[in-house]
Amino acid sequence: MARALITGIAGQDGSYLAERLLADGYEVVGFDRLPSAGEAQNLVAVADQIEYVEGDLLEVGSLRNLIVASGVDEIYHLAAPTFVPDSWDDPSATMAAIVGSTAEILAAALAVAARPKVWVSASAEVFGDTDISPQNEESPMRPRSPYGVAKLAALGLVRTMREHHGLFACAGILFNHESPRRPPHFLPRKVTRGAAAIALGQQDELVLGDLTAERDWSDARDIVSAIVLAMRAEEPSDYVLASGEGRSVGQLVEAAFAAAGIADLSDSSIRVDPAFVRPPEPIAPVGDASRAQRELGWERQISFEQMIGEMVEADLADLRSEG
C-alpha cells in the first residue's frame, strides 16, 4: 500500500487530495498547523482515516524529521502562505515558509533510501510582470511580490534537484482555483458568499474593486486530479495548471448572482470602491496547460459555471444554518 505525506492537508487542495488518495487505497499522513474551524470542516470526511501531525513550516527540522520517520513513498508539498498581499508585511517569513520548507523537503527526500517522489505547488505569481499571454512553462518569469519571488525560488529548487540529483520532483505552476472550501477572504468566495447573503436578504450590497480585472479560474478538484497524474507519470516535469480562459470579475459576479437566483444585477447593489482597485496588470494572467494535457492526458471536468454554482449553494446552506 502506497503511503503519502500531504503538507497543508487541512486546506482546500490538501483536503481534496487526501480524499482522492484515500479512495485510491493510500495511507495518508497530513502535516499542518492547528486548523481553523473552516479547515477542520474540510477534513470531517477523512479525519479518522489519516495520521494528522500538527506543525509549523517555520519550525526548522520538523518536516525533515517527519519524512525520515514516516516512511512515505510520495510527498505533496501544498502548505504555504496563500494570501499574496500579506507577503509585503513580512517578506522574510514568506521566504522561509515557502523556500525554506521546500529546500528541507527536497533534502530529506534525497537523504532517505526510499527516495520518495515530491510534488511542490508553485503559483502563477511567478510570471508577474509578463508581456506574454497565455503563459506556459517557458514564459518569462518576473514576479512582482515577495510571494512570487519565493514561489519562483521554490520552483528553481525543484528543477535543480531533479536535474542534478535525478530526484523524481515535480512542480505545478497553479493559476487561481476555487471550490466551496476556498477561505472567505479570497475574492471568488467573497463574491459567492455576498451573492448568497443578498439572495437571503441578509446583506444589502456587495463592495468590490475593478470589475474588469481578469483571472484564470479553475476548480480545485480538477487541479488535484492533475497533481495526481503528474506524480504517476513515467518522468517528472513541471506543469502549468489552468483553464486557459480569462474571465473578468464582472463575469464572476454575474455567474454568482445567477446561481443565487438574482437575474437582474441592477437590483443587487454592486458597489465599486476605489480602495479595492489594484493597479492594472499589463497582461491578463491566463495559463496555457497544453503540456499537462498532452503529457498527462489531463482534462478539466468541472466548468466555471458549475464551480461557482456549487460555491453559492454551499454559502446559501451555510448562511441559512447561521440563521
From TrEMBL:
Q: Which residues form a coiled coil?
A: none
Q: Does the keyword Lyase apply?
A: yes
| GO BP annotation list | 'de novo' GDP-L-fucose biosynthetic process
Instruction: List the Gene Ontology MF annotations in alphabetical order.
Output: GDP-mannose 4,6-dehydratase activity
Residue ranges of the NAD(P)-binding domain?
A: 5-311
Report keywords, A-Z.
Lyase
Reply yes or no: does the keyword Lyase apply.
yes
- Cofactors per UniProt? NADP(+)
Gene3D superfamilies assigned: NAD(P)-binding Rossmann-like Domain, UDP-galactose 4-epimerase, domain 1
Top EC category: lyase
Q: Which Pfam families does the record cross-reference, listed alphabetically? A: GDP_Man_Dehyd
Q: What EC numbers are recorded for this enzyme?
A: 4.2.1.47
Give the family from UniProt: Belongs to the NAD(P)-dependent epimerase/dehydratase family. GDP-mannose 4,6-dehydratase subfamily.
For this protein, the record's PANTHER family field holds:
GDP-MANNOSE 4,6 DEHYDRATASE, GDP-MANNOSE 4,6-DEHYDRATASE
The name this protein carries in UniProt is GDP-mannose 4,6-dehydratase
Q: Which organism is it from?
A: freshwater metagenome
